[in-house]
Each structure stands twice: as structure tokens, then as C-alpha cells.
Amino acid sequence: MLTLNQLTKAYSVGDPALRDVTFRVPRGQVVGLIGPSGAGKSTLIRCINRLVEPSSGAIYLDETDLTCLGSRELRRARRRIGMIFQEYALVERLTVMENVLSGRLGYVPFWRSFTRRFPGQDIENAYRLLDRVGLLAHADKRADALSGGQRQRVGIARALAQEPELLLVDEPTASLDPKTSRQIMRLITEICAERQLPAIVNIHDVPLAQQFVDRLVGLRAGRMVFDDTPDRLDEAMLTEIYGAEDWTAMDQEDDEPESSSDAQISLRLPGAAT
């Protein structure tokens, strides 16, 4: 379980990026983090793995307070946290398999990582993960030969290679077309359910988030203003999070629908006609 307790991040100038954010994410639950640009979503994710140092508050992964760890303990704790990036963060000249195995770098001696001689168990597991994300046939391809959706799948497999206890996902669909975006979100949520992984997904696409996540947390100006199931996100709360807009007209049209029923996904508002 992940627990945030009064998490605050303030910089030397400007308003605080996060203000007393408190919530829990139990095992197997996928939380969608929504809010306008500058609301503090990416800062929150980066505070959890301490790529950004919190100003105050506590972050617990099970019983471990991540904010109190020294550098050595933090390196060990980060092995427990899988990160999936918006821009994939792959090594383009390496193969798909080598990129997945890079998720084991925190567990193997330097000489093994330098010579790319990973234990057989790690290699077998990497093949299983590539099969799970649908890329087994691409194991020997260079990363720069893949499509955006395939690269994101490699990033998912790499994060899982860490055998994490928590997934942090930063805008996983921002560079993808609507059909591929749904496939990636479906894959993430299925894997979290299979492995009972808690996850936080920073996502701008509210209808997509509503379709796949278990729970939504809304931020505005660093404060938590919404924490509930997707079906409870109504027009009034959308206005509270994002500002005034005609939310009933908020539709997402796909260029490549998976089926006729998927051609248009509307924002689900309580009481709206279906």
C-alpha cells in the first residue's frame, strides 16, 4: 500500500506545487491523477520516488517512510517502484530485450550490467514479460525500430522486470493515437489487477481515465479537490478542477476505432443520456 500524508512541495519562489496532499492507494488499485497543467501531478509522482524532494509530509510504501531514507536505502527502495515514462526513456541503440533487462540493473553487480551478462533467471523472466505485453517476436529488434505503442510496451515490461511493489505512470498515452492509448491503458490496468500492484497514473485524457482506472484524484493548484470513483466525476467537479467549460460536449473521437462501438467515447457524467 502507498500512503501520502500531508505531502507538500514548495520552491523558493512562487506558490507551492503541492499542498497537504493526503490519500492511500491499496494493492491492486489504479488511481488516475487528473488536473490542469501546473496542478502538481508530475511533481507528486516525482516526490514519491524522490526525484523531487518533498518539503514536508510523509510517503509510506507499506511500512517504509520514503522521505526519511538516506541515499543507500533510497536506492534499494527505488527498486520497489516501477516507473513508466511519457517519452519511453529507452536506450534507442539497444535491443528490446536489453532494454527490458535494464530493469534489473539495481539487482545485479556492475560487471554483469556493463557486459550485459544477466542471470538466466532474469533473461527467462524478460521473455515472459515480453510475451505478456505482446512483443515476444520483437525481442531482438532495436528500440528505435519500434512504433510509439510498442516502445511504451517495452517501458511497461522494463518496469515489471524490477518486480515492483508500486507503479508510477507519467502520461503513458500522451504521444499515442486513441486506439493505441486504450490498448496501453487496458494493459496497465490488467497487469495491476493480475499482480495486485497499486498504481498512480498521471493522465490528461479524462474520458480515457474514466474508462479504465478504479479511482480518480483531482488536483488544482497543488491541492486535492476530488477523490472518488470515476462515475462520481460530474460537471460541477470538472469545473472545480479545470475551470468553467461546456463539459457535456466533451467527446473523444478516434481516428482508428477498434470497433464501431468504440468510435466515440463520451465523458461519463451522472444522469447523462446513454
TrEMBL record:
Gene name as annotated: phnC
Cell compartments where the protein resides: Cell inner membrane
Region (Disordered): 249-274
Key word Aminoacyl-tRNA synthetase present: no
UniProt cross-references to Gene3D superfamilies, sorted A to Z: P-loop containing nucleotide triphosphate hydrolases
Keywords assigned by UniProt, alphabetized: ATP-binding, Cell membrane, Membrane, Nucleotide-binding, Translocase, Transport
The protein's name: Phosphonate ABC transporter ATP-binding protein
Membrane topology: Peripheral membrane protein
GO terms for MF: ATP binding
One Pfam family matching this protein: ABC_tran
Translocase listed as a keyword: yes
UniProt-listed NCBIfam families: ABC_phnC
CDD domains: ABC_PhnC_transporter
Residue span, ABC transporter domain: 2-246
